[in-house]
Design goal:
This is Response regulator. The protein is of the alpha/beta class and 378 residues long. The chain is 54% helix and 7% strand. The chain folds into two domains: 147 residues, Response regulator (Rossmann fold); 192 residues, Hypothetical protein af1432 (Orthogonal Bundle), CATH 1.10.3210.10.
Length: 378
């Protein structure tokens, strides 16, 4: 039931016309409150707790509820509890209106979640002042909520834009190394997919779970794109040489790990704050040619001393290099590549990484076929 606005109305504040719900099993009490409130507000009424819960979710939903505590059947305390449990009504402020006037009663009512407590007999000026105050507070909370939502949307939009810029920049940098070697083609796409696959297989492993928790897999996949960025500092005569490199050329080629790590370290120093992506990319660039047995380069790290990200990258890079055409070699059949990598378990590669690769080999083969270079994966 609604009590409509009628007659001459006083000058309104911004909350004039707000919808209020008055809940009381006594029609006389409803009439008294209606007479006080209807000049300023749209008043809806309910004579039972069950009906109050229905009206609270029926348009126009109330912005404030004045609720009697003592009602037959479902009393005011239970109505308030149910309102608080329903996400649709949990934020509607409730003022208890009751003849229960002791301090203990008032404290109990406020403790249940009521925003205010009015005792009968009601004083019109006091009722209107309390209602006005609670509506103003609700409107202020609603404005703050809307502002926060708008701010969150703007932050999300800017973060998405920043992420796009970062991704484009990473790909552009990675291409600098890729375009130096015309034979690599889809190497970056395959590398990212292989890293996601292998990391997902290792995510629950206790030796890798910390590195791969949260957004660790995506961070690793993106960071891996810069693993060979240092090759931009290698002369074409070495980088594109057909056939094997002599010892001096091999030593020069191996400097690409240090060159890449130093370039990323310079970018870190220029950043205003630490960036997890750059830290991960730096360790991959520097250490992806280390070997489990300590015979790799540039720092001859062994075992667990090699960062987990670089241990995963080492196998991914070796797989793609062996299976792809390069200026100095033809592609190797995938079953031969698989056997060769598994044979390096505990020597070149972390044993657990090899085991995860071997278990996921069919998926590796599918990725290889999806991003195939001409003449590769024969």
């Amino acid at each position: 039931m609604d009590i409509r606005l009628s007659g001459d109305e006083p000058q309104a504040d911004f909350h004039m016309g707000a919808t209020l719900l008055v809940v009381d099993d006594n029609p006389d009490n409803i009439a008294v409150l209606g007479a006080m409130l209807q000049p300023l507000y749209r008043v809806r009424v309910a004579t039972s707790g069950a009906r109050a819960l229905e009206i609270a979710v029926t348009p126009p939903e109330p912005e404030l509820i004045l609720l009697d505590r003592m009602m037959p059947g479902m009393d005011g305390d239970e109505v308030l509890a149910r309102l608080k449990l329903d996400p649709r009504t949990a934020s509607i402020p409730v003022i208890f209106v009751t003849a229960m006037s002791s301090t203990d009663d008032e404290c109990a009512g406020l403790g249940l979640g009521a925003v205010d407590y009015l005792t009968k007999p009601l004083v019109p000026a006091l009722v209107l002042a309390r209602v006005r105050t609670q509506l103003e507070l609700k409107h202020a909370r609603d404005r703050l909520r809307d502002m926060n939502a708008s701010l969150e949307d703007e932050v999300a939009r800017r973060m998405a834009e920043n992420q796009i810029v970062q991704d484009v920049t990473v790909h552009a940098l990675a291409r600098l190394a890729e375009i130096r070697d015309a034979g690599t083609g889809n190497h970056l796409r395959r590398t990212r997919a292989y890293m996601r696959l292998l990391a997902s297989r290792l995510r629950e492993h206790p030796r890798f779970s910390e590195v791969l928790a949260g957004d660790g897999i995506e961070l690793l996949a993106k960071s891996a794109l810069l693993h060979d960025i240092g090759k931009v500092g290698i002369p074409d005569s070495v980088l594109l040489k057909p056939g094997r490199l002599d010892p001096g050329e091999r030593a020069l080629m191996e400097t690409h790990a240090m060159l890449g790590a130093e370039a990323i370290a310079n970018a870190e120093r220029d950043a205003e704050r630490p960036i997890a992506f750059l830290a991960r990319a730096k360790e991959i660039a520097r250490h992806h040619h280390e070997r489990w047995d300590g015979s790799g380069y540039p720092d001859r790290l062994a075992g667990e001393a090699i960062p987990a990200s670089a241990r995963i990258m080492a196998l991914v890079d070796s797989f793609d290099t062996m299976a792809s055409r390069r200026p100095y070699k033809q592609p190797i059949p995938l079953d031969v590549v698989r056997a060769a990598l598994v044979a390096e378990r505990g020597r070149q590669f972390d044993p657990d990484v090899v085991d995860a690769f071997d278990a996921a080999f069919d998926d590796f083969a599918r990725i290889a076929a999806s991003y195939r270079d001409e003449g590769s994966y024969s």
